[in-house]
């Protein structure tokens, strides 16, 4: 089992922050701050630990917010020099963004400057969201400027901070309702030179598609015009959830015809009666029945039985294959039936389909048992 993230954000974090601030602000009561921050610290998860330190900072820095933020900014370490493989080191500044989000909403300019500096060392994607809610026009105008910034971490903040469904953060309901302001920012970043930024753009567009599938398809189709390989990758990544949902029009954007001219043979699902905790192997053969070469997107879908006896489909990505006329290819995958935090298994008949360019054909079924 993976070690909880909070264990990598231990008691050394407030101690290190205290040392950084003391070096720049000699009146800072480091010992009192650390005692305050660590009171009950061991019982908290990662994000609450960041908030706990931020609250201690508010009590031990000057009462004037602008002065307190200036001290924090002056105490920061060097900017990130790369865009990947950071580890947990940048999380040192999680309390700083919590501080800005929690206490800086009445100080727009000071807080925006603070986030500009912080996002070059960690990420201000969490702290920018309250400002988008209170000052939507002013914050969007600032993000429009930042979309052209030389620093890739600043540009990524534009796309990541505006994600309507950003993990670990409250949703931006106004953008879920009307994503047009976000799409205007993504237009500025869709050909960003950094994969780090383009991946964030794709994730944002994927978020938008969960609430507005037609807008996702329209945007992806438009972006495909004169697209570079890099932009094509972005579009494929943005459409990944829509492909699993078999949204109308998605596969056409990706260049797949509506109906694959293939036959499915030699299907097998073994064992026929697996137990919860076992695995099941699904295999089949696909043959190109057309006289032309075909490119076929092949996935499969398992209809998992739920607690109420009904079923819920889950799509498993397989591969894209190029088939010459009459060519046959063997495909398959083994699915774990072990209990997971994201999926609990129940006994009953589980139907299995193969998806060919999004069109479903039944492969068979297996009977999941508990004995």
Strand order of the largest sheet: 4-3-6-7
> What is the percent of helical residues?
40-55%
Query: Please, how many domains?
Result: 2
| Rg, Å, rounded | 25 Å
Write up this protein:
The mean pLDDT is 93. The protein folds into two domains: 5-212, no CATH class; 262-368, Immunoglobulins (Immunoglobulin-like, Sandwich). A hairpin with a 5-residue loop joins strand 3 and strand 4. It is globular and about 80 Å long. The longest helix is centred in the middle third of the chain and has 17 residues, at 195-211. The strands form two sheets. Strands 4-3-6-7 form a four-stranded antiparallel sheet, with no helix packed on it. Strands 1-2-5 form a three-stranded antiparallel sheet, with no helix packed on it. It is built from 16 helices and seven strands. It is α+β, with helices and mostly antiparallel strands.
